Please model this.
Amino acid sequence: MKYTAQATTEKPGKDAAKKLARSGKVVGRKTVPPGEVRIIGGLYKRSKIAVASQPGLRPTPDRVRETLFNWLGQDLQGWRCADVFAGTGVLGFEAASRGAAEVLICEQDPLLVDKLKALQVKLKASMVKVERGDGVSLLRRMSSGSLQLVFLDPPYESTGFEAALKAAAQAIGQPGFVYLEAPKPWTDEELAAFGLKIHRFDKAGAVHFHLLVKLSELTESA
Model:
């Protein structure tokens, strides 16, 4: 599989901005989460996910998820995935909706974990496993190369981005992807320390989102 790194930094157009606004509104410097988000594609398309009023909880906007799954090709049939800073779990459930064989969803907040488990039961999503705990520790327990996709969307004030990237890099196989959502763009120079490189990048409002692959994969596919 040959990858060509692409980067776009264009501001979202009017329609995209409207979609982004539906995913949360800004009051002063704080983002107030929406009351609910919807799964946008696949088996569970249009299913609603309630968004709790928790500090720092900011579901990945519709426009960002649409772009991400376009990059991934929509069909994740047979993939093993992990959403390790789950929050609402919308990224993990989107992956399950698109055919992933196994989705590990990890969250530390007990209230959110209860909501995630209730949603898993409601959707009868047998491929989803919800676990309470530290997402980085979960990744470190995974066998090397055992996952095709890891979602990383830590709290923006987190100091654990580096540890999460290192753990995710060892957990994905070849081919394999790490999705990174962050308050700033990460460069190839920064990511090289973890053996990763940008495959795709875009920005929507304050959200910088990256799809990463292993450096070795790009070298072998060149």
Q: What stands out?
A: Residues 6-221 form a domain with the Rossmann fold fold (CATH 3.40.50.150). The chain has one domain: 6-221. DSSP finds eight helices and twelve strands in the chain.
